[in-house]
Specification:
The complex is a heterodimer of chains A (329) and B (343). With 329 residues, chain A is of the alpha+beta class. Chain A is built from 9 helices and 9 strands. In chain A, strand 7 and strand 8 form a beta hairpin. In chain A, helix 5 packs antiparallel against helix 6. Chain B is of the alpha+beta class and 343 residues long. In chain B, 39% of the residues lie in helices and 28% in strands. In chain B, the strands form 5 sheets. A 5-stranded mixed sheet of chain B has the order 3-2-1-9-10, sandwiched between helices. Chain B has a 5-stranded mixed sheet with strand order 13-12-11-17-18, sandwiched between helices. Chain B has a 3-stranded antiparallel sheet with strand order 5-4-6. In chain B, strand 4 and strand 5 form a beta hairpin. The radius of gyration of chain B is 21 Å and the shape is flat. The two termini of chain B are 26 Å apart. The chains are: A alpha+beta (329), B alpha+beta (343). At the A-B interface, helix 5 and helix 7 of A face helix 5, helix 10, strand 18 and helix 11 of B.
Amino acid sequence: MTDTKPDETLSQNAIEGTSWSTLRESKGISLEEIAQQTNIAMRKLEALEQKDFESLGTETFALGYIRRYAKILNVDPQIFIETYKASRPEGDESEIPAGKIPGRESFSMSEKPRKIPLAAISAIIFVVWIGVMWLLPGDEAPESSKPAAPEALEQQPVAQSDDATVPTPVVAPVVTTVVSVEKKPESLEQSQVLEQESETETAGAPEIVENNPLAADAGSAISSNTVTAGTSEVSQAPVSNDPLSESSAGEDVIVMAFTDDCWVEIKDAQGTVIFAQLQTKEDNLQIFGQAPFKVMLGNARAATVSLNGALVSTAPSGSQKTLRLTLSN
Amino acid sequence: MFKRLRGMFSNDLSIDLGTANTLIYVRDRGIVLDEPSVVAIRNQNGQKSVEAVGLAAKRMLGRTPGNITAIRPLKDGVIADFQVTEKMLQHFIRKVHEHSWFQPSPRVLVCVPCLSTEVEKRAIRESALGAGAREVRLIEEPMAAAIGAGLKVEEAAGSMVVDIGGGTTEIAIISLNGVVLSDSVRIGGDRFDEAIVNYVRRKYGSVIGDATAERIKQEIGCAYAGSEVLEIDVRGRNLAEGVPKSFTLNSDEILEALQEPLAGIVQSIKSALELSPPELASDIAESGLVLTGGGALLRDLDRLLSEETGLPVVVAEDPLTCVARGGGRAMELMDKYNIDLVY
């Protein structure tokens, strides 16, 4: 691009040491000649020689003038350009030809790429969450249907945080009936249904989930206790599936058998929900606790209930399916 | 359908779809692709397939057997072969996203000549969409060139840009983020090469290829009569004897060969200056005009234009990539300040 090769004898140090005008004069070139050749205004060339780069205008023009000036002096323009860049306050930023617009705040050019990892991370989290939600119910189901070990005497609170797995019982209008039944120990027929109350409620957090087919046989072996009306003192409601150990503990036992699907919720004397689960056809259930029990049956016609061996009537009035009753000795 | 999702894994691209070279600028990565706009097509029993694209295809130009044709799908700055352009863009976009897992679907800004017709613009838009872009924006080449050259286009001051590309020369006066006046002449690097081929045929009775003409232009080509004289040895096929022959060309001869296209560019610049509003003309007289594009690398072209117009003429830094860089910069500015640089 140059007429001749740049003057090799002029090192950068030599140029930096002398002023540009001295260099030009040593080559016998006047400023007017340069102005004539390049059409650059005299005052701009003077400013350039005095290294007053601010008055040269934008960097594009300043660098352009410097290149043309260096070309006429037959000097490598890079030496002059380095001097110019060193004098710029912005330093590195001025090196970017498509640099920032002065007067406007600078901004990161990597704005867009940053979004990609964020999006990827959120997508991965979402997929993991979906996976967990999908797998969790699958893990819980076998646990709840698994027969409990016979030696489990102590209360077994089951963490059942996922309400989605517990079906909501059928809501029924309030039905209150009081049935007096004669007490006859050793007989399965006699029991007293003191109160049947129906409230709108949903499944609470059950403490015991138990489903033992052996419980039905065990229920017949339990000696009957008196059934009394009213509420009694609060006591812990341990539940076990071992009928032998339970009968000796002197607690009350409810035995239920089902001929169809039925939602069952049982509260003990303290009002604690000790059982809340859907029972399916031919399920048998045995619950130990402190009477009186508040029992809610979603499909009362499908259930046979006995308290301490005494059979309790579970026929709801009219066409009702749901039955709420209180069982006490 | 999944363009948006794929777009999250794609970069915003600024494409300088030039007649001679295609450049792609990616945010915070700079110029990532600079390849000739050439596609080699293999024709096998009537079935066409892409044999090579870019540099590999350019090497095939003029050296292909019967079943392969090396095509330059753009002519005079606009699309001449729609399908091949689409294939070429597709190849380039994929090449830029080589490490991506997904098929890329970037937002794309393409530079178009300022006097291109609606049909030409539509062809460019459609081919970019066909190549996988999810959103296509167009920008006038001189505007991108001015931004790429570092001119303060947002100021209320006139800036004049002359972008000499492969197919066209774009001349524009820009102020307040807009093109005040523009002109586009279909003279560029290709016309220079063509002029050299014609001159050699006339003067030496020998035929040289486009690639040789381009090499001559780059090595000894000059635009100003007072420049240093350089020489080059070239070989061409002698028309009379029909055998390859070697001869020496000097830069004065090339200057003579280039007279016609250079005069065309000078004339267009003068016309633009004549039409410019006086206030902007005064700004341009003060600071000068800026040369960008590959043509700006022609030796002493700035000197010729300076003498012809009486204005200071400066060559932008890295003139070849100005348009692509400016396009990328324009995209950032549009996102940041919501300004309208695109039509």
